[in-house]
Amino acid sequence: MTPRDTHTDIVLHGQDIALPLGMTLPLAPEEAAIAADRLWQVRPSRLSSVYRRIALDGHRLVADDVDWQVGRGSEVRGPVLGHLLLLSGRTALLDQLHGPGADALRRGCEAAA
Predict the structure, then answer these.
(1) What domains does the chain contain, in order, with CATH numbers?
(2) What is the tens place of the pLDDT at every residue in 52-80?
(3) Rounded-to-integer distance, Cα 29 and Cα 85, Å
(4) What DSSP string describes 44-100?
(5) C-alpha span between 4 and 85 (Å, rounded)
(6) Among 8, 33, 57, 90, fewest CB within 10 Å belongs to which?
(7) Looking at beta carbons, which pairs linking 27-31 to residues 24 or more positions away fall under 8 Å?
(8) Are residues 11 and 84 in contact, defined by beta-carbon separation less than 8 angstroms?
(9) What is the pTM of this model?
(10) Could you say which DSSP state residue 101 is in?
């Protein structure tokens, strides 16, 4: 486990606590982007096995609050925190994502649930 993995865990678990309580946990988009980059990097590795798998092939994730994007295909835009949670298998902010690929992504998440 690297310091970036620890950072990612802290960011995610903080949101796991705050969001169900209806709270906002302040997080700079740049910090969320660092964690999202890490999750994108480990997707093909065994490190990603702790996260629920959501089919992201065929989608390009683009943050609209920080300079961050990954993938290829139909564009899905939204806050980087929404993308970070999605990359970790969490769908709590799925409704904040929009764009040409968002509906197909939502359907894929519902089918996988």
Answers:
(1) 3-112 (3.30.1050)
(2) 677 888 999 999 999 999 999 999 999 99
(3) 13
(4) TSGGGGGS-----TTEEEEESSSS-EEESSEEEEE-HHHHHHHHTT--TTGGG-BST
(5) 16
(6) 57
(7) 27/81, 29/63, 29/65, 29/66, 29/68, 29/79, 29/80, 29/81, 30/66, 31/7
(8) yes
(9) 0.90
(10) T
| CA contacts within 13 A on the Cβ side of 6 | 3
What is d(CA 47, CA 33) in angstroms, rounded to the nearest whole number? 18
| pLDDT digit string, tens, across residues 87-98 | 998 999 999 999
pLDDT, one tens digit per residue, over 14-32 is 999 999 999 999 999 999 9
Enumerate the β-bridge partners of residue 78. 63
Task: Pull the structure tokens for residue 110.
Answer: 């519902």
Q: How far is the C-alpha of 6 from the C-alpha of 24, rounded, in Å? A: 21
